[in-house]
Amino acid sequence: MYTISIDDLKKRKQALHLTNEELARLSKVPLGTVQKVMGTTTRHPRRATILALAKVLAPKEAKFMEASDKGTYLEYELPILEGSTGNGIVREGAPALKDLPLKRQGEYTLEDYYAWPEEQRIELIDGVIYDMGAPIFKHQDIAGEIYYQLRLEIDSAGSDCLPGISPIDVQLDCDNRTMVQPDVFVICDNSKNINKCIYGAPDLAVEVLSPSSRKRDQIIKLNKYINAGVREYWIVDPENERVSVYFFKKETWPDVYTFDDTVPVGISGGMCSVDFSRVKARLIKFFSEK
Known about the structure:
There is one protein chain. Helices cover 34% and strands 21% of the residues. It is built from nine helices and 14 strands. The strands form five sheets. Strands 5-7-9-10-11-12 form a six-stranded mixed sheet, with helices on both faces. Strands 1-2 form a two-stranded antiparallel ribbon. Strands 3-4 form a two-stranded antiparallel ribbon. The chain folds into two domains: 6-98, Orthogonal Bundle (434 Repressor (Amino-terminal Domain)); 137-287, tt1808, chain A (Alpha-Beta Complex), CATH 3.90.1570.10. Strand 1 and strand 2 form a beta hairpin.
């Protein structure tokens, strides 16, 4: 039987910067149970509990764990998660985890990033791998509406700037230790568009928060974007219907808007904006009961 240890899950939870509350919400495991498992108060949790947590923290490994009760398998000696090794059972024809690049966080490079299985969305920030997971429909609809409005506004203004929407790789620092995928971005220097990816810092980056990305977007990416030369950064918070705008040219930031406001695009000099009341209207129409 393929198993994942509690220590493995604790390491992955720490790497993903998830709180117990966020993990409980994503896994649908009661908060009290999560606290006991992560605190090792419960030393022998049920397999179903481990599997539910693993589906959030280590989805690839969870698939192998779930499959190990059925089917035909090939046995491999393979690492389960960073920092631990053990015997695993992998279904024949499935990707072998032994072939994945397993290093200490902080040591990963673009070579590892490009070798990662395509079905697992990740970002690489200063040598650290962050598992992104598949975004929910609501998240993508918000990003799509922002992109749609930006494209219309930029075209109407006759600007040469180019908006983009994830998934598009952005080689933020032009080095081999960072590759991010902003939910929405704008570049005003088309030489950064090298087709394979955006090579260098975008002028505007927009991140739509999700439970698993709040800390990464609000702290890690904020600092990363400032240092990389991003001119403007928006953090869109659907849960609180709030948009925090960091226009780094200004002496003070952020400027905070609601989903009832029209948010000006600082890098456009006031020529472009995004009407978040339209974002809110779509949420009410299509997602209010979800």
